[in-house]
Write a structure and sequence with these properties.
By secondary structure, the protein is of the alpha/beta class. Helix content is 36%, strand content 18%. Bound molecules: adenosine-5-diphosphoribose (APR).
Length: 247
């Protein structure tokens, strides 16, 4: 396997990543739940992840929304409350700083936490939406999070159909966001993928669309089938902190 770093060799991997970055003109970052775990948000599929307790595919699903609104509402009320007080960690701030300095072009993320924007990143493609806002699924009007949490009906059309602005299983990704992320990735000469199991489509297809070099930073090796040019098995925050010192 090419350029594969783990444990004590991580520093060498970060050095190579820094060299890649210095020789690249357009760098795009793709993040998943592993980017946020050090902000105390459990991921979905690793040990301690949501997936072990509840299968998101069964509740974060458009059919559950339509057929069992009580369960859907219970699950998303819990998630909204959990995510209400979270804060970005050093890794999010470092990425925001990279953007400000012109080192990276954009971040495409599967995360609905909003932590990249909260840290100051501006060019963020939120492929799965953002849990901070709510809309009516029936008439499309924006609604208040409080109304969702109180299980109120839509104030515009009276339907029992309020939902967070996140993409559910069974739904398409927002087309314009997807198009921008794809275009950035296809034009980039370096794609850095951070903290994702690469199990969920269509986002797990994005690294395959990259035309430049590809890097994978993750706690465990879920990228084994992707033939990344460089793999660093480590934690997102730690690797970002080391990287900052090299650039
Ligand atoms: N640093 C790096 N990697 C980490 C860290 C960390 N601190 N913590 C966890 N990871 C890794 C895990 O080892 C795992 O491989 O991040 C990965 C997270 O994978 P998933 O839990 O599957 O999350 P993700 O790939 O983002 O899931 C995709 O599935 O249900 C959904 O819609 C949800 O957007 C989500 C999508």
């Amino acid at each position: 396997m090419k350029n594969y770093y783990t444990g004590e060799t991580i520093d060498q991997g970060v050095k190579e990543l820094a060299a890649y970055m210095k020789s690249s003109d357009s760098i795009v970052i793709l993040t998943g739940a592993g980017m946020d775990t050090e902000s105390n948000i459990p991921d979905f599929r690793s040990e301690g992840g949501w997936w072990r307790k509840i299968d998101p595919r069964t509740v974060a699903n458009i059919d559950t929304f339509a057929q069992n609104y009580t369960l859907f509402h219970e699950f998303y009320s819990m998630r909204i409350k959990l995510l209400q007080d979270v804060l970005p960690h050093a890794g999010h701030f470092i990425l925001a700083d990279f953007e400000q300095k012109g080192v990276i072009k954009s971040i495409a993320t599967q995360n609905i936490s909003g932590l990249h924007r909260m840290a100051g990143s501006q060019n963020v493609h939120e492929l799965h939406g953002n849990i901070a806002t709510v809309r009516c699924n029936s008439c499309g009007q924006p609604a208040k999070t409080e109304d969702f949490l109180h299980k109120n009906n839509c104030t515009s059309c009276s339907a029992t159909a309020l939902r967070p602005n996140v993409v559910l299983f069974g739904e398409a990704l927002p087309q314009n966001v997807w198009a921008q992320a794809l275009s950035d990735i296809q034009r980039a000469d370096l794609l850095v993928v951070i903290g994702t199991s690469l199990e969920v489509a269509p986002v797990n297809q994005l690294p395959l669309q990259a035309k430049g070099r590809t890097v994978f930073i993750n706690k465990e090796d879920s990228g084994v089938h992707y033939n990344f040019d460089l793999t660093i098995l480590g934690k997102a925050k730690e690797v970002m902190e080391k990287l900052k010192g090299q650039l």
